[in-house]
Amino acid sequence: MPRTALVVRGGWEGHHPVEATDLFVPFLRESGFEVAIEGSPDVYADAARMAATDLVLQCVTMSQISADALRGLRDAVAAGTGLAGWHGGIADSYRAGSDYLQLVGGQFATHPSKAPGEVHGDETDNHLDYTVEITALGRTHEITAGIDDFSLRTEQYWVLHDDLIDVLATTTHPVQPYHPWHRPIVSPAVWTREWGAGRIFVATPGHSPDVLRDGNVRTIIERGLLWAAR
Q1: Following CA atoms 166, 97, 212, 214 in sequence, which dihedral angle do they give, to the nearest 10 degrees?
Q2: Which of 12, 19, 136, 224 is least crowded, fewest Cβ atoms below 10 Å from its Cβ?
Q3: Over the stretch 104-137, which tens digit does the pLDDT of each residue have?
Q4: Measured between alpha carbons, how far is residue 13 from residues 6, 28, 42, 88, 167 in Å?
Q5: CA distance 218 to 230
Q6: What pTM did the predictor assign?
Q7: Please, where are the H alpha helices in the chain?
Q8: pLDDT, tens only, 8-34
Q9: How far apart are CA 204 and CA 186, in angstroms?
């Protein structure tokens, strides 16, 4: 019997939720999943449907979630449904939902910008050259094994997180004279989390489809989807 993947997408359009998730739907089908797509997290409140779902791929930046839907998502993950996603679609969702933040284990705080003299007032102001560094755990984990440190030019997420996550890759925010912090800050860039019988996978790169097409990013996400699924 094929496994079931539920793609939940929506929220802020700047993260291209339809185009971005469409990049991975063929991979899921080729991997043996029956794929359903919903445009709202309200589906999480359907207990029977969630119990039959082996993987949730969520791409919903910001937005809101009802108490029933959030409870349904938490219950489903605790019972074994996998939850996976990238960038703001999972790490910047439902900001007012503290129970969601606890479930995922990391929350987008900011993406530092270029030097004041280099900003132009568009989204490229936050596109920096940075390195994704694979951790010691990541070098042996099935999601990131065989992948070396790699560089990207895109938004570099500063993430608030707890120590229940298993960090497979990090990125370091340097000290700049125009920023108020006084030492380099290391943020998780790829992590996993076990929650009850369920698994959660998060990758912070993925601001736009071109980033998702990067060979390293795409490989990590594809492996992460398979790892998280029941």
Answers
A1: -30
A2: 136
A3: 999 999 999 999 999 999 999 999 999 999 999 9
A4: 19, 23, 18, 11, 28
A5: 21
A6: 0.98
A7: 17-22, 25-30, 47-51, 67-79, 88-91, 98-104, 136-140, 209-212, 215-228
A8: 999 999 999 999 999 999 999 999 999
A9: 13
